C-alpha cells in the first residue's frame, strides 16, 4: 500500500516484552538508532519522546518512546572506545497510545482493546502519518472534509511534524489551558483566537488584565472596555447580585432591602403604563387608583406612610410576574436608599402607620449608607450604569456582535475594573449567566460561541461573605461547564492554578492544554480531571519548556506534545526585563 506506515527503511527492531502498561523493543543493532535522512525527511530512531509504529497481526499500534537502555552485560562493557567499535543491542520501553486498522490506517480506534505480540516489528513513525491523523481527531469520518482546522504548532520532538487541530476537537467539550507563570498560556490563547478568526467562528474573551488588547486593531475583532467604554446594565443583575453588592445583614436588613426593590419595581410598572391604572397628578404626587383606593408615588418613590395596603397589594398582584422575576430588575436604583426609609413603617390593621418605626430605621441606617455609597461611587456607576450612563450598553454591544458576520472575536476588557469588594467576580459571573441564559434559548445552536476566560482562578470557586453578609456562591461558569455544551456555548479557561478551579468544573473540561506544571496538587488536579492523563504523560510536565504543552482530552486518542507556534499577534504583557543602569561617577 502506498499509504502504509510500515516502511522497512524505517525499521527499528522487534517487540520482546508485552505488558498492559508498556511494551519493550529489542534493537538488533545500535546503528538502527542513528539519525538518517529518507526522502528529505530527517528520522531519529533512538530519541526518547519519538513516536513509533508497531505492526501487529490484526492491528497497527502507535506508541511513544519513553526510555532506552542497554542490557546489563553490555552496560558493563561500555567505554568511549567500545561505543564506536563494538555493536550494542539497546532496549526501548514504549507506551502504546492508540491502535488503528492494519489495512486502513486512517481508522483510529479509541481505547486499546489488544496489544502487539512478541516478535512484532517496530518502525519509526513518519511525519506525514502523524500530521494526517492530528487533523482528524474529534471529527466524525463523514465531517472530516468540512470541519475547520488551524495550525497549533509543531511536535516538540520533531519540529518537521505540523500539528493542525480542528476547533471541534479543542472546544466542543470545553477546554482548559493550564500551566505555571511563563509557561506560554497567553501565546496558546492567542493561537486559539487566531484560529477562531481564521476559521470564521465566534468567540468572546473575558480579559481581566487587558493582555489581549493587541487584537483590538484587527478588522475581525471588536472590543469594549468596561467603565471607560461600556457598562453592564444593573437591570440584568439578579437579586442575589444586588444583595452581594449591598451586603445586607441576614435577618434584619435583607427583608427591608427586598421590599424596597419590590416597591420600586411596582412604581416602575405603574409609571410605564399610566393610561391603564386610573392615573392622576396634583403637581406633587402621582396617584393610581385600584378599586377605589390609591397608590401614591412621589418622585418615583412609593409612599407608604399612613396609606392603605390594599391598593398597593392590588397593584403588586397586577404586575406580579414582572415584580417577582428577579433575573431582570427594572427600577430606579438611584432611589433605592430613599425607598428603604419608606419601608420602615409598621402595618396596623389595613394601613401603614403614620409614624416611622425608629427601631427598624435604626437597623437599616447602615444599609442605607452602604447603598448610597455604592450608587454614588464613580467606578460602580461606570460598571453598572447607575444614574445616567454616558458609555455604551455592553449587553447591546454583545448582541450586535453576535449577529455581525464581519466580526469573529469580541474582547471585554476588565483592566479598569477595581479589585475591591469582589466586584470583578460579580461582574464576570453576571456576564457568564447572561450568556448561559442566551444559550438556553438555543441562540448558539447553529453558530456556536466560544467563551474564553483568562485568569479563571480569579472568577471561579468564589464565594462572597463578610461579618454581616451570609455566603453567596458565584456559580455561573460552573453551570456553563455542566450544561451549555449541548446548547453550543463552549468554555475555554486559562489558569496558572488548576487546584483553585472547582473540581466539578474541571472535571467537565474535555480538553486540556497543559504547559509546565511543577506543583504536586496542580498535577493531581489535572490527573483526576483528565481521563487520558496517565503517570507517564504527567511525568513530562515539569520538564516542558516555555511554549511547550501536552494536549490531552476526550477527543484526542493520544496525548500530543506540541511546541505552540508564535502567534502573529503577540499578547500585550510579556515578562518585564531588568535593565542595566549605569551610575555616573561624580567629578
UniProtKB/TrEMBL annotation:
Keyword Nucleotide-binding on this protein?
Answer: yes
Q: Which InterPro entries match?
A: HerA-like, HerA_C, HerA_central, P-loop_NTPase
Residue ranges annotated for the Helicase HerA central domain, each copy included: 151-277
Question: What top-level branch of life does the organism fall under?
Answer: Bacteria
Keyword Nucleotide-binding among UniProt keywords: yes
Give UniProt keywords alphabetically: ATP-binding, DNA-binding, Helicase, Hydrolase, Isomerase, Nucleotide-binding
Tell me which stretches of the chain form a coiled coil. Answer: none
Which GO molecular-function terms appear in the entry?
ATP binding; DNA binding; helicase activity; hydrolase activity
Domain Helicase HerA-like C-terminal per the UniProt entry, residue ranges: 449-554
**Protein name as annotated:** Helicase HerA central domain-containing protein
Q: Which organism is it from?
A: Pedobacter nutrimenti
> What broad taxonomic lineage does this protein's source fall under?
Bacteria, Pseudomonadati, Bacteroidota, Sphingobacteriia, Sphingobacteriales
